[in-house]
Design a protein that fits this description.
The chain is an alpha/beta fold and 627 residues long. Among the domains are: 234 residues, P-loop containing nucleotide triphosphate hydrolases (Rossmann fold, 3-Layer(aba) Sandwich); 165 residues. It is 65% helix and 13% strand. It has a six-stranded antiparallel sheet. A five-stranded parallel sheet has the order 8-12-13-3-14, sandwiched between helices. A hairpin with a 2-residue loop joins strand 6 and strand 7. The two termini are 29 Å apart.
């Protein structure tokens, strides 16, 4: 970027004035309070939208009695000539010269949009310009007074590492949550763990065998009548339980032929859901595209209305730059904007229609997911019902077999027969041994029921433990992934620092060796976070112990080194860099700037006649206090 002209209107102490800039060295010379620093501030403000002094409001740099101030900067970038205007009222306009005429490229008030445009088109960023291109009065002392952590944050922002650090912090937070979840799951696992050997199974088998022997002895003791009556009662109860389970299975299978038919439907739905994966992402991308196109249409409409106002004004001149308006050219631009707006509107309608279709498809997918969950619940219940039916059916078959062995047919279920059997059993004289046998049978049955309940609880705990183990494995994988992600980000940050700061150190050492000011000097930018100390002739010296001139030269070399590595727009602006320097150091500063001007355009301010003589042949902008 090569600066050509600075245009000011009600800006600082200037009402309306232009200043020409040339290649090489541009010396802004004049006494104090003549407006030298105002010109430096105007260049910085035009490029960044902020005053060069931090924490100063932009409204403070306009003329005292004016509503707003405007600064304009004409420059050449990649062979194209541009004019950039910025007002303290947050108005921004970019023009480009084509075939001898100026055309408006961009007209905007939104600060974020303006800064994004300057960054994308010209690579202009406030922090980078402030640290690598401009030197304002007193800046070095403010910089050195900062804490090392603050200087480190500035470095990370310049290198683009700050975003990586934000990503790393998010990974660390997620890792912390994952570790907390892992601790919770481990505590849950410990509460559910038990011996893998099922001690109840063997005990249940022993009690069932013993109960069978007792029931046989009881039947031999009391005869068949009471036993048959009990078996008939058990048969009726078991048959009723089987009928209830069968009915529930039929109701659960409502709408399906069998469980295989149900699983086929589940497979079909799962396939449809998988095919619809990505609908949310596609819908979000469409929403962002529609929002972006709405913004573009609004911007085109604003530019069109602005151009129409220029034509309808009737004055024939631009109210900002006061140049004559070619109505035919402006009308052609308006037609181009109309055509572009029409095309965008057509595309926007297509995207909105597509968005409606995606939304409908997403709702259909959500309904399918709900249906799938319902079917999965049914399938689980059906599996349980099949197991229960098989178990009850086996028990019923056992009872029927026993009755058949006693000569009782399956159709013999009348209440009269049951009553007769009971009466026959009651007619048998009971003795003490029989009562003891009955009590022992009841006790064994109660013990068996309790063991089966405990076994059921144990199986439930085992099932829950298996689920918790699966969750633990998932959390462990997530934690490992986050650990790897954090390590990867740290490695990336380290690589960026090494690749960017190493060339900056080499350039800084080269500049210092050219001046022969410190002797053999070494600085580790990566370790020291932007110059908190310097090693001179093998001895560490704090910057705060250097003289004022040594600090200034070291700081300027540091700026130039960072500018070479991070990218310099093509110029440097130094506000009174020889302030408080003796004659010898002034000569050294002049030589330093002359060397810098061999490759860059330099704008420097001064009130010192010796400096003016040292820059003989430079482009002179002479300032007077009455201006």
């Amino acid at each position: 970027m090569r600066l050509e002209r600075l245009r000011l209107k009600t800006f600082g102490c200037f009402q309306q004035q232009d200043f020409e800039l040339s290649d090489g060295i541009n010396l802004i010379f004049g006494p104090n309070f003549s407006g030298k620093s105002t010109l430096v501030n105007a260049i910085f403000f035009t490029l960044t939208g902020k005053p060069i002094v931090p924490r100063v409001d932009a409204a403070a740099i306009k003329s005292a009695k004016s509503y707003s101030g405007t600064a304009g900067l004409q420059f050449v970038e990649d062979g194209e000539r541009y004019m950039l205007f910025r007002g303290t009222g947050k108005r921004f306009q970019l023009r480009q010269e084509k075939e001898g005429e100026w055309h408006i490229v961009f007209d905007e008030k939104r600060i974020t949009v303006v800064e994004a445009t300057l960054k994308d088109k010209f690579g202009i960023m406030h922090d980078r310009l402030a640290l690598t291109t401009f030197l304002r009065e007193g800046e070095i002392f403010e910089f050195l007074a900062r804490q090392p952590a603050t200087r480190r944050d500035i470095l990370f922002a310049l290198l683009g590492i700050d975003r990586l650090i934000e990503v790393r912090e998010r990974f660390i937070d997620a890792r912390r949550l994952a570790k907390r979840e892992r601790s919770r799951i481990q505590a849950h696992q410990n509460s559910l763990r038990f011996s893998a050997q099922n001690a109840h199974k063997t005990e249940i088998e022993k009690i069932e065998a013993k109960l069978k022997e007792l029931e046989t002895a009881d039947s031999m003791e009391t005869g068949d009548a009471e036993l048959i009556a009990e078996w008939k009662q058990n048969r009726e109860q078991t048959q009723t339980q089987l009928n209830n389970l069968t009915q529930e299975r039929t109701e659960t299978l409502s709408g399906f032929n069998n469980i295989s038919h149900l699983r086929e439907m589940m497979t079909t739905i799962e396939t449809a859901v998988k095919e619809a994966v990505g609908l949310e992402k596609e819908r979000e991308e469409l929403i962002q595209t529609i929002g972006s196109m709405d913004s573009q249409i609004a911007a085109l409409t604003k530019v069109r209305d602005t151009l129409r106002t220029l034509i309808e004004n009737g004055d024939g001149h631009c109210p900002t730059c006061h140049q004559k308006i070619e109505q035919e050219i402006v009308q052609k631009i308006i037609e181009e904007k109309e055509t572009e707006k029409s095309q965008l509107s057509t595309e926007l309608d297509v995207h909105k229609k597509t968005l409606t279709e995606k939304t409908d498809n997403l709702e259909s997918r959500q309904e399918l997911e709900q249906r799938l969950r319902t079917l999965q619940t049914k399938a689980t219940r059906l599996e349980q019902l099949e197991q229960d039916i098989a178990k009850v059916q086996a028990e019923l078959d056992t009872i029927k077999t026993r009755l058949s062995e006693k000569g009782v047919s399956e159709g013999d279920k009348t209440d009269e027969s049951f009553t007769n059997d009971v009466q026959s059993a009651e007619s048998i004289t009971e003795n003490l041994d029989k009562r003891q046998l009955k009590a022992q049978i009841a006790s064994e049955r109660k013990k068996l029921e309790k063991l089966k309940q405990e076994e059921a609880v144990q199986l439930d705990r085992l099932e829950r433990l298996q689920k918790v183990n699966a969750e633990a494995e998932q959390v462990e994988r997530t934690t490992l992934s986050l650990e790897l992600a954090c390590a990867g980000v740290d490695k990336t940050i380290e690589t960026l620092q090494r690749q960017i700061l190493k060339p900056a150190e080499e350039e800084l050492h080269r500049r210092l060796e050219q001046m022969e000011l410190f002797g053999r000097t070494r600085i580790d930018l990566q370790k020291q976070h932007l110059l908190p100390s310097v090693k001179i002739d093998g001895v560490d010296r704090s910057l705060m112990l250097l003289s004022g001139s040594e600090k200034m030269f070291l700081y300027l070399c540091f700026k130039v080194a960072l500018a070479k590595v991070l990218g310099n727009p093509g110029f440097f602006v130094f506000d009174d860099p020889t302030l408080h320097l003796d004659e010898q150091r002034k000569t050294l500063m002049v030589d330093f700037i002359r060397q810098l001007a061999e490759d860059h355009q330099v704008v420097v301010t001064s009130y010192d006649e010796e400096v003016r003589a040292g820059f003989e042949g430079a482009h002179l902008i002479e300032m007077k206090r009455e201006q």
